[in-house]
Design a protein that fits this description.
elongated; three-stranded antiparallel beta sheet; alpha+beta; Pantoate--beta-alanine Ligase, Chain: A,domain 2; 47% helix
Length: 194
Amino acid sequence: MPGIFNFLSSFIPRRRKGQAMTEVVLLFPIFLIIVFVTAKIFALLVLVQKMEIGSYYAARRWQLESHLNASDYPDSRLQKDIQDKVRGYMGFDNAAVAKFMNLQNLKLEIQRTQVWNVVTLKVYTKPNNIKLLCRYPKQAVCASPYGRDCENGYEFLCVEPGNHQNGAGKQLEVIKYVPSRDRPIQFILPGIKD
């Protein structure tokens, strides 16, 4: 029997002692940093998609429920209700989601015009303040040839030294236009008669 185990062990490659431990010690922190930065970028993508869906909901609900002949639901109450629903969908009610996406505040503005209602959803974020990426000041990082796009990214990610009280963060905005209607229109399937 011992001969079989010796025979099988000859197929397993021999390693130098301590090699795996050295690789883990050196590469694992780098892997964690890459995972963390990727998660924060993913959070921004999720935030943008949630804003699009939330603004669509707000615009569609405003279009269907805010007609001028509705007397039982004033605009301010409807707007507040829509804002509360969008706020919940965005994740402001869940502390873990709000922290992951760096959510600070949400504002829903609705402006009536003669033809269109302009529904604007604004989300304010806190800066991520990833120490590794925010080590140098904005002027050094965003020097020529980078410009305004670099400054926008820096403001989204980092708190500038001396500006810890209000920290930069960013305001993300989605605007939807919905038609004004003075009364709701009944939906009738084409080709069906009473």
